[in-house]
Design brief:
Layout lengths: L2 E6 L11 H9 L2 E7 L3 H13 L3 E5 L12 H8 L6 E8 L6 H21 L3 E6 L2 H9 L6 E3 L8 H6 L3 E4 L5 H9 L5 E3 L24 H11 L3 H16 L4
Parallel strand pairs: 1-2, 2-3, 3-4, 4-5, 5-6, 6-7, 7-8
Helix pairs in contact: 7-8, 8-9
The structure holds zinc ion.
The site of zinc ion has 6 residues, from loops.
Length: 252
């Protein structure tokens, strides 16, 4: 069995002790590849270094809606120069949950659009974050018909079929929820991906508080799809990992 973690942040300070053990845990858990995503200035550089060090880790670079409020323009050339070392552009997107002023939205949108255009010109897929801005994200992305899109940690079950119609991938996280189950059932296999969003989106079983997530845990998301669809985990693993493999252009 082969599993792929389509989205995580391994440059995060919660991994300051190093990633040797995290990568060893991936191997034990049949996770062949983890896609780690940069979100801005400092961590794009860290992200690239990590991907260079470990064969099991591939990188995407981008500027998140958080970092879009700072100076982000220099990152366009950083990403461009790294073209042959990365498998996608992200994490990029719009967030109207944490940010509520139209001025902030404007800045986010400028940044988002600039990176989608860059992805189009470099022929790379995009990994998109959207929170309370789904309609606008769909509108913006729909005008770039040649860009391949993955909506990361996407749990809006009403809109998931719309994403599928556009040929986008919907990536499901390791946290249990009703909408994850609904989406796992409603979409075709070809539209699904699985992610941990490590170090986030993991709960301590005892006290329900935050616990550090890691790519080895991605099996939890694959298992949720298998259970929702009443299909063997091996088949889900094979078909859903293949989507991520194609999307990011990963070699076997
Ligand atoms: Zn993320």
């Amino acid at each position: 069995m082969e599993l792929i973690d389509s989205h995580c942040h391994l440059e995060h300070e919660l991994y300051a002790d190093g990633l040797d053990e995290i990568v060893a845990n991936m191997r034990k858990a049949s996770v062949s590849t983890a896609i780690t995503c940069g979100t801005g200035h400092e961590n794009n550089r860290k992200t690239l270094k990590i991907a260079e060090k470990y064969a099991e880790i591939e990188a995407c670079l981008g500027v998140s809606p958080y970092d879009a409020l700072r100076d982000w323009k220099s990152e366009l050339s950083v990403v461009k120069d790294a073209r042959d070392k990365i498998v996608g552009i992200g994490e990029i997107g719009l967030d109207r949950h944490h940010f509520t002023s139209p001025d902030e939205w404007q800045k986010q949108e400028e940044c988002f659009t600039a990176f989608v255009e860059l992805a189009e010109s470099l022929d790379l897929p995009v990994v998109v974050h959207t929170r309370k801005a789904e309609e606008r994200v769909f509108e913006v992305l729909s005008s770039y018909k040649d860009v391949h899109v993955m909506l990361h940690c996407f749990l809006i079950s009403k809109l998931a079929p719309e994403a599928e119609k556009r040929g986008w991938l919907v990536s499901l996280p390791t946290i249990k929820s009703k909408s994850r189950e609904k989406i796992a059932k409603a979409l075709s296999f070809e539209s699904l991906a699985c992610e941990t969003d490590s170090p986030f989106l993991w709960k301590d079983e005892k006290d329900d508080g935050f616990a550090r997530n890691e790519p080895a845990n991605v099996v939890e998301a694959y298992t949720a799809i298998a259970q929702a669809r009443k299909q063997p985990l091996e088949e889900v693993a094979e078909r859903v990992s293949e989507n991520a493999r194609k999307f990011f252009g990963l070699q076997k």
